[in-house]
Every structure is written in structure tokens, then in C-alpha cells.
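Q: Hi! First time doing this. I have a protein sequence and I read that you can turn it into a structure. Is that right? Here it is:
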Amino acid sequence: MSDAAISGILQEISRSISDLQGIPQVKKLVDKALKQKIAVEEIVEKGLKRGLDEVGSRYEKGEYFLSELLYAGEIMTSLFDVLKPHMKQDVIDRKGTILLGTVKGDMHNIGKNIFGMMAQFSGFRVCDLGVDVDSKTFVEEAKRTGADILGMSTLLTSTLPEVKVVLDRLKEAGVRGSIKVIIGGNAVTKQFGEEVGVDAAALDAVEGLEICKRWMAEK
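A: Yes, that's right. Below is the predicted 3D structure, encoded as C-alpha cells:
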């Protein structure tokens, strides 16, 4: 298959995601690329990631809103299931590991899931602990996985104190210095992040992902 033909398919995939053409259409194009023996790495980097980056860009410009970001997350979820069997482990692990979870007392997961899926398609390995995660579990999994980054989500102001609890537990376990901590969610502000001593507070999934990419580039 010629380079031009490969490039054409990858551009179609990218456009189908950035224009939110729908899960069936995107899956059809990805299946076409796989049948043409295009490497999964190229599909991810030059198709999916570029499309997702454009979604993020449009969101930042105010052209897309939360509903579009949510739908892009649904598309990515469906595609990851299709591509995962074809992925080499180093494609997934290339940028590092993010440990992710919603803090104790909070059952919300939409924002966390969007961020997690975007991170996976940007080359991170994501260990998602789910919702209502207590501090002990965060610390145990941070040690077990050797994660580079811990991402905590909280949408409720009543669960904000849990962030400090986790940070204190990380310090007690002697692992705080070896892991970056980022928080996000509707209850989170930059000021709160500074007060409790996290490394970053992200106001949305797009910003959070850019921060994580920068951290790994600096390592």
C-alpha cells in the first residue's frame, strides 16, 4: 500500500473523530486500516491521537462543549477495545503510568473516564481504581504499580479533604517524593491545589493531559 493511501486513511480516521462522525463510522475506518496492515502505532499516533487533539483544541476554543467531549470519550472507549488486542505493550507504556481514581465518598466518574481514555490514547498506561477510593488503596497501588503520576478526581466539595488525607498517607509511606499528584473535578480550584500541596490542579481533562505529558517529557 502506498504512503499516500496510508496517509489518506489515517487522515480520514482523524477527521472522523474530530468531526464526531459517530462510533460506527470511526470503527469502520479503523477496521479498514487494520485490514490494510497499517501498524497500530500509526493508527493511534497519526489517526486517533490527532483527531482527539483536535477535539481538545476545539473544546479549549469554545467550539465544543462538555457533551462533545463526553461523546469523544465514548468513541475512544469503543476503539480501545478494538485496538487493544493488536497493541504491543510498549505502545501502551511508552509515556509512563498514571494511577487514577475518584476519592473516597465520591461516586462520580465521567470526567475521570474521559481523562483516562485520552491518556491511554496519548501513550500512557492507565491504572483506573474506579470511584470511592480510600487513601490506603491509593497508597498501596502507588507502591505496587510504581506509577509516575497519581490523578485524583473529586466533584463534591464535601470530599475535598480526602485529597489531603491521601497526600499525608503518601508522605507517611515514603512515596510522595517519587510520584507527581494531579487533581481534577468540579470541586477543584487552582487555589485549593496550592493549599493542599499537590503538583497540579487541572480544570478539565485536556489541561490535565497536557500537564502529564509535560511532566513525562521533563523526566
